[in-house]
TrEMBL record:
The keyword Transferase does not apply. The chain crosses the membrane at residues 38-61, 85-106. This is ABC transmembrane type-1 domain-containing protein. It is found in: Endomembrane system. Keywords: ATP-binding, Membrane, Nucleotide-binding, Repeat, Transmembrane, Transmembrane helix, Transport. Residues 1-111 form the ABC transmembrane type-1 domain. One of its GO terms (cellular component) is endomembrane system. It comes from the Eukaryota. InterPro entries: ABC1_TM_dom, ABC1_TM_sf, ABC_transporter_C-like. It comes from Opisthorchis felineus.
Length: 111
């Protein structure tokens, strides 16, 4: 049917323009998926970094004596030491799996 009256070039041009549009949209979708994966994989590290920066920043703003005012620790200020870091990382890793499953669980409850 296409070979009738030498319409091959016209259909080839149409097919090429449609394919170019399709490829540009596929590239956009692939870039979106890639960006989503980068954000998804970096989120735990960004959350940990934000937590540690906030903790350290609050110590610097309030001073070391703010921990001494509370009855939580009698005389020792609360520093960011390796023990706190490792315990925090461990607790965040324990929370990671339930938080990953939370959206799927909510959608299952809604359905």
């Amino acid at each position: 049917v296409i070979k009738l009256y030498a319409w091959e070039k016209a259909f080839q041009t149409q097919a090429d323009s449609i394919r170019t549009t399709e490829l540009s949209r596929l590239v956009r979708v692939a870039l979106g998926w890639g960006l989503g994966n980068v954000i998804w994989n970096l989120a735990p590290f960004v959350i940990l970094l934000t937590t540690f920066v906030t903790f350290t920043w609050s110590l610097l703003l309030n001073g070391e004596t703010s921990a001494m005012k509370s009855n939580a620790t009698a005389t020792m200020p609360m520093f960011l030491d390796p023990e706190r870091i490792f315990v925090s990382v461990s607790l965040f890793n324990l929370l990671r799996a339930p938080l990953i499953l939370l959206p799927w669980s909510l959608s299952a409850v809604i359905m």
